[in-house]
Amino acid sequence: MAESSEHILVCLSSAPSNERIVRTAARMAKAFDCQFTALFVETPDFHAQTAENKRRLQENSSLAERLGAHIETAYGDDVPYQISEFARLSGVTSIVLGSSVVTRKHLLRKPTLTEQLIAYAPGIDIHIIPDYSTDANYRARKARTNQKLDILSNVVKSISVLLGATALSLIFYNLGFTNANIIMVYILGVLLTSVVTSNQVYSLISSVASVFIFNYLFTTPRFTLTAYETGYPVTFVVMFLTAFITGTFAMRYKEQAKQSARIAYRTRILFDTDQLLSRAENKDEILNAAAEQMIKLLGRNMVIFEVNKGELSAPRLFRAASDAGKNTENLQDAENQIGYDMQAEMPVVKWVMEHNHSAGAATDMMSDSRYLYLALRVNERVYGVVGIEAEDNPLDASDHGILLSILGECALALENEKNAREKEAAMVMAENERLRANLLRTISHDLRTPLTTISGNASNLLSNGSSFDEETKQQLYSDIYDDSMWLINLVENLLSATRIEEGRMTLRTTTELLSDIVEEAMHHISRKAAGHKLSVEYEDDLMLVQADAKLVVQVITNIVDNAVKYTPPGSSIRISTRRIGETAEIRIADNGGGIPDEEKTRIFDKFYCGENRIADNRRSLGLGLYLCRAIVEAHGGTIRVTDNQPGGAVFAFTLPFKEVRLNEQNHDTCG
Q1: What is the 8-class DSSP label of residue 104?
Q2: Of 76, 324, 440, 575, whose CA is between 20 and 30 Å from 416?
């Protein structure tokens, strides 16, 4: 069944009857199968409401959310106008109100909320839910936060401003200024009183006091509360009204300025959250950024559980202090510092994860918990559970809305990060498949030539061996040996490449003489090097390195084999060693044709063969130098290729140098 075009709006408040109104609106939305929105209008003085009223508002908001409402918050002093504007912009067709805001008590009272809504939005249906009994004793009172010190401070400020205004008025009077100027001074004093005090009653008292002081000090006869001129009563009334209205507007604008500052701060937090999450590169950075912003918004301790394959991770605890957003290494210490009992809270966390719904403090589900838990989710997928400390101080409706926005952005960032990882993994898998296919094609091509040669030579020896002279037999044996060694080298490189790709290449480092490693490599170099001038030069025969000798031998063998393959017979190949700082460098130089500059940056890449071809037309797989770089870097060294002068190439790589110190000890005994 398709959703209808109806859109029902219910107004949230802290009134006890609001629960019944929300439930009625929810039943209407369900009956019409339409969109359902719950709106709270935050006025400038909302932050001063009592804790009981704030708690009741949060309960009503949570109830509306559980019943399927989308929670929205508007800001402004004119509640009917904010409701009507939201309804107009959101396509609302019906507004549900309680009867407590409908009745006009007397003729001179200002129009009711319903009357103002009808005037602002005449095309919207307004439904009145009668419920007088519940709200009989309800008043939206402000919190009694004025303790003795606060009251004393406001009284001192008011008296100081009044004394200052009186002193200035006396100066004006002595200078011959008119009463109109003195009246303006007292109006200014009332205005300043409304700015520096925290309650409108002080500006009211200041207005009355200003009238009496002006009458006592500046009207004829002076120093009495009587006035001879007939126009003075009107002057006093106008002075009082002007001062009181001015002070009232100043107090209202001050509250509106505070509300605007709070709105700007929340907007900035949302903006910064979006930027921080967009710059985060992994899951940890996303969660840390979101936690930092939520702590800035709420100033409360919090905890985050990641959900991975349906299992909860260990809690990540964040403190609302100067070091907020940093993980505490010792979990037990962190629990003690912010009062988090993981074992006691785990049932609530698991319930939120399984049901994809909020629970804990300030909710109807497991409300004895110290934390309010919300799901970090995208649709039905839960990426984590966030706990906000809210046992003794429930969240404001506006803070709750901003918090949900941050959680939504964080969940989307986690979703994008997950999609990016899956896409990258798919690309890596596709690349591996492509490389595997290329490798199979290359192997099938390159194995065919030596295997054909080996089988052909072996067949000739089996069939016609008796008719061959000794020199021909030796040549056939040599060809079979060379081809089999090439195949062995190919298989060794393939196995090493496989170990590197799978992360299974482990180093078994020992302290070795570098000269011994080079000599061992000389025994493994292809017999084709016999046609080249191969020489070895050591700067120090006793130079020690910390290395896996077997793998270093493979590096030297691969580089020398490359030099043999790609240089003409008779070319010189020189291996030399020297110490550079804390490393030992091995250089393998030839005087062949060299390597073009455009190939030097790619020559160590996997499967890169360049433009050169081996003399016997057998193509290389491009794995030898790739393995050399992997082995050298695994030792913590570097490998590079440069030009040899006047011609040829130089391959140089480094290994960790090992210095052995011999400590001689003196003994008292001699033998």
Answers
A1: -
A2: 324
Distance, in Å, from the CA atom of 477 to the CA atom of 465, rounded to the nearest integer, reads: 11
Query: Does the pLDDT at position 502 exceed 50?
Result: yes
Give the DSSP per-residue string, 326-367.
PPPSSHHHHHHHHT--HHHHHHHHHHHHHHTS-EETTSSSST
Give CA 312 to chain center in angstroms: 19
Question: How far is the CA of 432 from the CAs of 436, 570, 607, in angstroms?
Answer: 6, 40, 12
What is the C-alpha to C-alpha distance for residues 444 and 238, in angstroms, rounded to an integer?
A: 106
In angstroms, the CA 244 to CA 204 distance is 6
Q: Is the peptide bond before 656 cis (omega within 30 degrees of 0)?
A: no
DSSP 613-666: --TTSPPP-S-HHHHHHHHHHHTT--EEEEE-SSSSEEEEEEEEB----PPP--
Gap between the Cα atoms of 502 and 380, Å rounded: 35
Please tell me the least confidently modeled range out of 106-120, 243-257, 358-372: 106-120
CB 102 within 8 A of CB 113: yes
Rg (C-alpha) for the chain, rounded Å, is 43
| Residue 48 tokens, joined | 């001063």
Give bridge partners of residue 653 from the DSSP assignment: 586, 639
Query: SS3 for 513?
Result: strand
What is the per-residue pLDDT for 323?
Answer: 46
The angle subtended at Cα 299 by Cα 297 and Cα 304, nearest 5°, is 85
Instruction: State whether residue 610 is helix, strand or coil.
Output: coil
Residues in a beta bridge with 21: none
Check: pTM over 0.70? Answer yes or no: no
Six-digit token string for 396: 């404001």
CB 545 within 8 A of CB 517: yes
Rounded CA-CA distance 595/258 in Å is 72
- 329 contact partners, CB below 8 Å, separation of at least 6: none
Report d(CA 249, CA 210) in Å as an integer: 18
Interacting residues of 586 by C-beta distance below 8 A, sequence separation 6+: 514, 518, 556, 575, 576, 577, 652, 653, 654, 655
C-alpha distances in angstroms, 394 versus 43, 57, 234, 361, 371?
A: 19, 10, 51, 8, 10
For the stretch 26-40, what's the b/e string if a residue is b when 16 or more beta carbons lie within 10 angstroms of its beta carbon?
bebbeebebbbbbbb
Q: Give the Cα separation of 560 and 497 in Å (integer).
A: 19
Q: What is the mean pLDDT of the chain?
A: 80
Pairs from 323-329 (Cβ < 8 Å, separation ≥ 24): 324/291, 324/292, 324/295, 325/288, 325/291, 325/292, 325/295
